[in-house]
Amino acid sequence: MFQNQTFTSRYFNGVSAVPEEGTVLVHGQTIQFTSFDTHHKLTISQFAEFSQTHKGCKLILLPDERKESPILEIFCTKEETKLLEKIWIQNKKSQSHASALFYSIREMNPIVLGILSLLIVTIVGFFYFKGLEFVTNFIPLSMDKSLGDSVELKMEAQFQKCDTKATDRFFSEALKKIVPKDSKHKFEISVLSSTIPNAFALSNGKIYFFSGLLNDADSQEEVIGVLAHEIAHVEKRHHMRNLVKAGGTSLAISLVVGPGLGNMEFLETFTEIGSTILVLKFSRDFETEADKSSIEYLKSQNMSTDGLLRFFKRMEKLEKGESDSEDNEEVSNAKDEKSTTNQITDFLSTHPATTERMKTLESLIQKGKKGTIKKVVSDSIWKEVQTACLDFKNSDSK
User: Fold this and answer.
1) What pTM was estimated for this model as a whole?
2) Terminal C-alpha separation, the chain
3) How many CB atoms lie within 10 A of CB 173?
4) 298-351: per-residue pLDDT in tens?
5) Potential cystine with 195: which of 38, 87, 145, 334 (Cβ 3.0-4.6 Å)?
6) What is 5-107's CATH topology?
7) For the chain, which residues make up each domain, given as ranges?
């Protein structure tokens, strides 16, 4: 506590830009400023803000709506500044319980405060994003269909469909076996002409297979495994859950950072997210959930569960440039086509063939009984399925 200690000081009265030079006498909770022609007697409680400066400290009086708040600058050592701040904080803490909490936090070590703040943000963020999962339960399935329908139009304008009687028969039989009996979704499958070995689903239940996946598949099991995986994405509403999470994240950032809410930019951002999120690469958690669900669908129908794993193994080889294909020209054409449609297909890929994911699949397949049914159509129909779009390409090139 200061007892009649004097410091060099200056006082800004909030009206003139020229400060009054003088001295300050600090005694307990009282501060007396004296200049050549002015005398101010103030108490610590009158100061709203306290900050350290390179020459001492600066105290700001309670704000005045009619003029600038008066400021008192005191020139002193760092130790004296810290003692003055301590007196000021103790005074503020005695004013109310909320003030006591706020200024107790202010007194904390910056490192400890940083760790505590990070912990609080992490906990709040965890429950916030967990809460977003429940929001989807209140969104009707009609929204999934509407959003999927809008994207379906865009996709079919970009790619040529080449469905055949064989592909229709194959996927019709496969859907009968894989789709859960209590499903609320209506599924429809189309084949798109592209050498890219991939597939993706829209939120309205429309599933697209690139012909490259059918042409390169080693067996019906592979295609059935991929189909089960895409059905799981729709059944688990991953598109809508992704949209809610993305929108929730955008909203949280807007609330924290500030811009966007006042001029409706947030709604524009949300709309932009919605137009792409429907076929966006899913998160690791959603992919794992789809993998687990697909295995459950297949096992419940006594169908083979090895196909999806074999598909990923083949994709891994392709990614590493170790494809078993001997037709180098075809592989080159596939790469060229992928580069030309890169803007569309980059975000359509829902099958990152990672080692970790294949290990998860292996553990899922090993649990419980393995399915025995490996075919849904005859070998002759399957051969026609595998040549999907090839006849279309040949006739197109003539």
Assistant:
1) 0.62
2) 97
3) 15
4) 999 999 999 999 998 888 887 777 544 444 555 555 555 544 444 444 434 444
5) 334
6) PH-domain like (2.30.29)
7) 5-107, 139-397
